[in-house]
Design a protein that fits this description.
single chain, alpha+beta, Jelly Rolls, 5-stranded antiparallel beta sheet
């Protein structure tokens, strides 16, 4: 019975990889609604296994205040697409007093938070896209309004 279940799961993953994964506008809108209702910053939408053992996922983030610490994802590259609001993002530089944190539940893998030193500040707004390679410190240092909402495409190589 267990072997049959494992085979069914493998076939489902293979089929998903062969046909792609669709995330509808309704799924994204529903995720935003949940995020607002539950006051959640980082809300996963959907993840997919990619051939070769990699993983790709989409999350929706809604920030209502600037970040006082920066974050580094050890293995996950992120692409942000701003959908609402604007603010200043700081990328690069270094992370001091780093503390390990496991963000696997958010499909962001092993990560570190700490004090952000240096880096480059850029003002971003709706329709802007930011690519943050694995290992790069990043944070929103300023928000221009009550919130900034953005989609985060996460790409994790195989372990």
């Amino acid at each position: 019975m267990l072997t049959l279940l494992a085979l069914a799961m493998a076939l489902a993953a293979e089929q998903q990889a062969a046909s792609g994964t669709v995330i509808t506008a309704e799924e994204i809108a529903s995720t935003l609604k949940q995020s607002v209702a539950n006051n959640v910053v980082d809300q996963p939408v959907k993840a997919a296994d990619v051939p070769g053992g990699h993983k790709a996922s989409l999350a929706l983030l809604r920030r209502t205040k600037p970040e006082t610490t920066a974050l580094i994802h050890d293995r996950v590259t992120e692409i942000y697409q701003i959908t609402e609001g604007s603010g200043t993002i700081v990328t690069g530089g270094s992370l001091e007093n780093a503390t390990a944190t496991d963000l696997t539940r958010l499909n962001a893998g092993p990560s570190h938070t700490g004090t952000h030193k240096g880096g480059e500040s850029k003002h971003v707004g709706v329709k802007d896209v930011i690519i943050i390679p694995a290992g790069m410190p990043h944070r929103f240092s300023q928000l221009d309004g009550p919130a900034i909402v953005y989609l985060v495409y996460r790409f994790e190589p195989k372990p």
